[in-house]
From TrEMBL:
EC code(s) of this entry: 2.1.1.255
Listed name of the protein: Geranyl diphosphate 2-C-methyltransferase
CDD domains on file: AdoMet_MTases
PANTHER family: GERANYL DIPHOSPHATE 2-C-METHYLTRANSFERASE, ZGC:194242
Top-rank lineage group of the source organism: Bacteria
Listed GO MF terms: methyltransferase activity
InterPro entries according to UniProt: Erg6_SMT_methyltransf, GPPMT_Stmyces, SAM-dependent_MTases_sf
Natural source organism: Kitasatospora phosalacinea
Alphabetical GO biological process terms: methylation
Amino acid sequence: MTSTEIGTAAAFVPSPATAYQGDIARYWNNEARPVNLRLGDVDGLYHHHYGIGAIDTASLGTPEDSEYEKKLITELHRLESAQAEVLLDHLGPIGADDTLMDAGCGRGGSMVMAHQRFGCKVEGVTLSSTQAEFGNRRVQELGIADHVRSRVCNMLDTPFANGQMSGSWNNESSMYVDLHDLFAEHSRVLKVGGRYVTITGCWNPRYGQPSKWVSQINAHFECNIHSRREYLRAMADNRLVPQAVIDLTPDTLPYWELRATSSLVTGIEEAFIESYKDGSFQYVLIAADRV
Ligand SMILES: C[S@@+](CC[C@H](N)C(=O)[O-])C[C@H]1O[C@@H](n2cnc3c(N)ncnc32)[C@H](O)[C@@H]1O
Ligand SMILES: CC(C)=CCC/C(C)=C/COP(=O)(O)OP(=O)(O)O
Ligand SMILES: [Mg+2]
């Protein structure tokens, strides 16, 4: 990759840094679950994260309604976009001249939302060429390819300059990497005073060790969920000072309970619901300032 200007083609695909990253690239290159594509089709924002907020039962109607499944998909998608809005709320004031980094950007839904809200540039990195192509195609269709770009790149070793970013985030993508390496890279690309935000699932140190449900989620996604304590320690070691730590577990449970009743279930719903209920697993937002 020679250019860092948004709007230029990013055809060069680097080799994965490790065999594990090669596995993860393959996983996301081959992913096409209806629960993600059909939700994205609702309004063209494609997410690979989960939802938060109360169910709007009035909008759902009853299961006997012939339109019920369509309404349920729309509702799940609304909750996933609400999750991304909450992440963006915590970035603080961002202007049109700022640049943000989405580490592990998936199909790019959060990046589009960030540009639409702030007018800023957004640089996304993913291991998957399929996802990067999907995201770049989508922003071209929207006419915002001069502001939003996905590229195939390891989030632990990005091409961005020191202090280039006013904000950066991981939306459900930090369970694929070592947290010390990850926060060292965010700390490098963020300017002093810049804001980092993550929404993630983490195991609860008060439970003791990762529960069987957490192990099941790890096996399902080939990831390695960290503990809440590990996040806070790795931030502290990398000049990232938490300003907000919010337990979103109660806010995400309605999403899972609704999803478990849909035709788009994937089989992982029970593990999320049971681990959130037994306290072994938590859905958290952490916002931290680069000092
Ligand atoms: C669950 S998806 C989340 C996607 C996106 N953040 C969202 O909210 O829709 C996880 C993403 O992390 C990316 N990822 C995992 N490890 C990575 C790494 N080392 N470097 C860059 N991206 C990585 C995957 O390619 C995938 O896009
Ligand atoms: C909170 C945790 C631990 C998340 C693990 C990372 C992950 C794979 C997120 C969801 O992606 P997705 O939207 O592709 O998954 P699904 O197909 O289940 O909707
Ligand atoms: Mg999904």
